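Worked example

This section walks through a single chain of length 455. The input is the sequence exactly as stored; nothing has been trimmed or padded.
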Amino acid sequence: MKHPETKTKQLTIIGGGITGLTCAYIAAKNGYKVRVLEASDSFGGLLNTFSIGDNRLEHYYHHFFTHDVELNWLVKELEIENKLYFKKTSMGVFRNGKIYNFNSPRDLLNFSPLTFADKGRFAATSFFLGKFANWQDYEDISCMEWLYKYAGKNTTNSLWKPLLDIKFGPYANEVPLAWMIGRLRQRMSSRKQGEEKLGYLQGSLDTLLQALLAKLKTYNVELITSSAVTKLNMEGASLKGVETKGENYSGGDFLFTIPTIYVKDFFKGVDNAIFNQLNNIQYFGAVCVILDLKKPLSKTYWLNVADSGFPFGGIIEHTNFIPSSEYNNKHIVYLSRYYSQTEKIAGQNTNEIIADMLPYLKKIYKDFDHNSINDIHVFRTNTAATVCDLNFSKKVNSCKQLINGMWFANMAHIYPDERSTNNAIRVSAEACKVMGMETDFIPYGHSLSGKIGFE
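Given that input, the structure is written out below as tokens.
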């Protein structure tokens, strides 16, 4: 697609995360005059990074899959494909006080918490969900209910239930099997003969972010930070403009890519139908405690904690994926936790979170010593993922609103898939397509995102 010389249509995008910035790029390629309004003082959203060991690192751990064709498309467009590489990784499970490798059929056979029959049921049900099940047929069935019935009580209690409990908290019993289908399809599509390779960008996601921002500037996209929308300017059933503390922006269409909780109150008492739909969507928070260590904890990249009572669900040893030499020989570990707004951790401060988590790390790694810690970084967000309960697709708001000139593309549209950079790009493509733009140049991969709300 050629770089357009004339811009006849105007688009204002609210939200400067990966969805908003990708939409801006697609719109600019389609000849739109584009501006992006970002409430914070920097672009990136969940792509944001910080400096560590003369390098950059994500606030929230990221990796890519080999089948992320939408991501690969954007990386190529930005001419940074030489920065993207894939490596074999390792996974483990902590269960009954012991670490088990969990990478291959042989590892499954050696997983002693399950009987031989349990292992067969685990393999069969996982394969069915990841390869054959149609997510649309399983929206009204909970993961727990289905897994207890078909994977078995011991398999579910030993593997699935602890993972669902720590990820979804009080909503664990309401998570639809459709979500699990999306999750397993993503993981299985990345495996060949049991081996999984994951991708990473040299220099972190900041490499992608800076390249994208630079590309947008070549299209004369107006990039405006510290511009939270405070008011919608309506004329009847049309959105004519938005206001921030310092400016009014009018004309053209308006695409909201921010979480719905930041938009819903504009409609309270104005359009109760839209308010009620947006108000139905709730969000999980997430916290990542990042340890800068003098030495590694283990040789495993990703350890799922399947024992109950732990304050984190995953231990991601980043420098077992990307060499510590990239960070001046620092060893980097993420302790990750999703949470609902009703859970204790939602109200804890940084020091309280650290004090809760570190003692549990020693329960897994007996040799862990506080003296091995160089530094600790804590990042948290209240909008890490949507709470997807039974029949969640009925809650997902439409991209096209009844209000003329107003459009939505946000995290809710990723369902039934899992949040990822690639899936955000797919949602961006679907939104731009619904808005009438040409998107045929964007390849379509394995993503299940962008299926709902774009009819």
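What to look for: Residues 116-131 form the longest helix (16 residues).
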